[in-house]
Amino acid sequence: MEASQIKKLEEETKKLLDKFSKALTSVKSEEESNVERANERRAEGKDGGKECDKTFRKIMLENAPQHDDDFIIAEKKTW
Fold it and tell me: Which H, E and C letters describe the chain, residue by residue?
C-alpha cells in the first residue's frame, strides 16, 4: 500500500471515529444500580448438602471431557 493510500485511510478513519464519538455523546446513559437482597445465599437442600442429586452428578460427569467414576479429570497449573 502506498503512503498516500495509508494517509487517506487514516484521515477517513479519524473522521469516522470523530463522528461516532460525537454520536455517543447524545446517548443517554442509564444509572448503574446494585441489587441488594436480604438473604445473599441459597438455602441448602433438606439434608444440608450432605447428599447430592444423582442426576446432577451423572450429567456433570457426562459433560466432562475426561472423568473417572465420581471425579472429573482436569489439568492443573497449565496457565
Answer: CCHHHHHHHHHHHHHHHHHHHHHHHCCCCCCCCCCCCCCCCCCCCCCCCCCCCHHHHHHHHHHCCCEECCEECCCCCCC
